[in-house]
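Record type: monomer structure entry
Structure origin: computed from sequence
Chain ID: A
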Amino acid sequence: MSQDRLSIGDVAPALELEDTAGERHALPAPGEAPASVVIWTCNHCPYALAWHERIQDVVREYSERGVVFLQVNSNDAERYPGDSPEAMRERVEKGEFAGPYLHDPDQAAARAFGAERTPDVFVLDGDLRLVYSGAPDADYDDPSQNAAWLRGALDAVLAGEAPDPATTDPVGCTIKWKE
């Protein structure tokens, strides 16, 4: 299972993973981006799928403002073949992801952040300090929520303010840990 979850104010651990094409992506160095977002997601979880388009809209909109997004799948692909790198690649090739979709084969990134669910959102400021973690918004089943908590956290960080709320409970399927 995951270790302790990052707390507000903690500096994010280093993160560098390959996308579905084998290209490596990492968090920027402190000061290189106004904010970064790491989102744990997957291919099969109904919660991740329900929030997917809302999250991709945020990726498209805020990437234009310099925010770095890394979407990570840490599920055990042997027990859940729908979350395999091949299945991830199929979704990327269909244009379903607005940013890099990264594979965490040894689950080290999920453990380092304390990610618990899909989706699980971690918003970092320009110094890579955690300023928000939790769900994208209050209701996976209500598209009108429009990833309000994620957007609110990013708007606050970009304005030099602290997000409110700073934490919410992540809602979704648990990460499928290797046995």
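Annotation 1: The CA atoms of residues 34 and 66 lie 6 Å apart.
Annotation 2: The chain has one domain: 16-20+42-174.
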